[in-house]
Every structure is written in C-alpha cells, then in structure tokens.
C-alpha cells in the first residue's frame, strides 16, 4: 500500500514537472539590455567610442555583436540607414544577468569618402544577439541613436 502511494506521488510529481512551461522571453526582457556611450574622442584619423553594455535582464546573453554606423544624409534634416558598419571590440560570450562590459569602436575617416554626406554627429548603434540559447526563437536586436537626448 505504501509503495502504491509512493509511486502515485512520484508519478504526479513527474507529471507536474513535465507540464511546467519554460518562461518566454519578452520585449520587456530585451528592454533591460542597455548600450550606453561612456566616452567619445575624435582624432585626425577617426572617432573612437567606449560603450557600456549592461545586461539587466534575467537571462544570459549567450552571443552578440555590436555595430556602429553613420546614417547617410539625404537632405537638410533627413537620413537613411547605412549598410557599412564597424563592429565593436572587447565583446564576449555568456554575459550574465547583472553583468556589464565595456566595448570599444574606432571608426576611421580613411575610406569613408565624403564625410559631409554622413551623419557623423549622429552615430547609430545596433546589437544582434541571443538570450539564454543560440537559436532563432531567442534572437533579438536592439539599437538606435548612440547619443541619447
């Protein structure tokens, strides 16, 4: 009788554990990942940026890439995206919740062409990464202007 009761309790426990669903990653979780400009320095050769990546989400950032680009001017006050990007250095895998790292980007003027056609005063930043596991369901992308008003 005790064995039957024990097996029944074990079966119910296993059934409940199997039915427990994994927490889904939400937009709110992704909004807890921040990219903040720490320092910007312009030299005769280009512009260097130091950027803090903060993971305030509840998930590990398993893998990510961070890029800086300058939008292309199309008029006095209009811009379009630029496919030419510079990847940040200093990145790493498995950024734990609560962890932050400092990334560095150098955008050289050489090869840039006519700087007057680029919005060098309004760089854009983009991060493409994966939360918890590297699979299509957990891929995310965040970005926008590097200079917050």
CATH H-level superfamily title: Immunoglobulins
Low-pLDDT windows of residues: none
**Total of DSSP H or I helical runs spanning 4+ residues:** 2
Q: What is the overall shape?
A: elongated
Helices and strands, in N-to-C order? HHEEEEEEEEE
Tally of discrete structural domains: 1
Provide the gyration radius in Å: 22 Å
Largest sheet: 4 strands, antiparallel
The CATH topology turns out to be: Immunoglobulin-like
Strand content: 35-45%
SSE-based structural type: mainly beta
CATH architecture: Sandwich
Mean pLDDT level: 86
Secondary structure: elements and pairs:
Blueprint: H1 2-19, H2 27-30, E1 33-42, E2 46-55, E3 61-69, E4 72-73, E5 79-80, E6 86-87, E7 100-108, E8 124-131, E9 139-145
Antiparallel strand pairs: 1-2, 2-7, 3-6, 3-8, 4-5, 8-9
Tell me what the structure shows.
- This protein has 149 residues and is mainly beta.
- It has one domain (24-145): Immunoglobulin-like.
- 15% of the residues lie in helices and 40% in strands.
- The chain contains 2 helices and 9 strands; from the N terminus they run H-H-E-E-E-E-E-E-E-E-E.
- Strand 8 and strand 9 (139-145) form a beta hairpin.
- The longest helix is centred in the first third of the chain and has 18 residues, at 2-19.
- The radius of gyration is 22 Å and the shape is elongated.
